[in-house]
Design goal:
globular, two-stranded antiparallel ribbon, 6-stranded antiparallel sheet, mainly beta, 153 residues
Length: 153
């Protein structure tokens, strides 16, 4: 059953490339995934591959849907990367993605409703219009001295 689920998730991941989700890669390494605000799905769809340490998707249900009360099992997981997600609520922000060599690879302009998961590499933001984002990243957070490396060029 698990293998069938993983195969279905992998297929949805491949289909996502044509569904309003932009995958930003460089030399075979995925740097970010963007779900643009105008992306719609008919059913709940995850765009990240099932083995990703950060799951990224859209929930979609018809009126009247009711989910049974449930909880998520405690399962040991090893996470060595720290991914971060922004969902723009108001304003405009340019997100710069840099290669491992420190060269600007791509700049993406996000507006309200757009979401990005930062998966790999150096990134920075420039706020174009006063900004508020929902941000989510894996924890625990050990503080800037432990978790953050500032690349001053």
């Amino acid at each position: 059953m698990l293998q069938l689920y993983l195969a279905a998730r992998a297929l949805l991941y491949l289909v996502s490339r044509s569904m309003g989700v932009e995958i930003i890669e460089h030399k075979g390494t995925k740097y970010a995934e963007i779900i643009w605000a105008d992306t719609t799905v008919d059913t709940t769809t995850f765009f990240s591959p099932p083995e990703s340490s950060f799951q990224f998707g859209l929930l979609a249900h018809e009126a009247g849907y009711a989910e049974d009360p449930h909880y998520h099992k405690t399962v040991p997981r090893t996470i060595e990367d720290l991914q971060q997600m922004f969902v723009v609520q108001r304003g405009i922000v340019d997100v710069q993605l840099y290669t491992d060599e420190g060269l600007l690879h791509r700049e993406a302009r996000l507006q309200p409703g757009d979401a990005i998961v930062l998966i790999h590499g150096i990134h920075a933001i420039k706020v174009v219009e006063d900004l508020q984002c929902l941000t989510v990243k894996q924890g625990p957070f050990y503080g800037d001295e432990e978790d953050k490396v500032v690349d001053t060029g």
